[in-house]
Specification:
The radius of gyration is 16 Å and the shape is elongated. The protein has helices spanning about 10-30, 35-40, 45-55, 60-65. By secondary structure, the protein is an all-alpha fold. The protein has one domain (about 10-65). The model has no long low-confidence stretch (mean pLDDT about 90).
């Protein structure tokens, strides 16, 4: 039985870095951690999410709209 060697996946690492950056931006904007995590993992427009929050939209409502 041959075992395939582990392959470094730069794309996965880049994706994780982007998600971490998105999470940081959302937390800096004031989103609660759980909502920020879900938004960071999604394809939601980050700038729109921050703008909605800054305009008084509740985090849970912004999540429902954007995700």
């Amino acid at each position: 039985m041959t075992v395939a060697p582990l392959v470094h996946r730069p794309r996965a690492a880049a994706s994780e870095a982007v998600e971490a950056w998105r999470l940081h931006v959302l937390l800096q904007a004031g989103y609660p951690l759980k909502v920020a995590e879900r938004l960071a993992r999604s394809d939601a427009d980050l700038h729109r999410a921050v703008a909605m929050f800054n305009q008084g939209c509740a985090p849970s409502m912004a999540e429902r709209i954007l995700v």
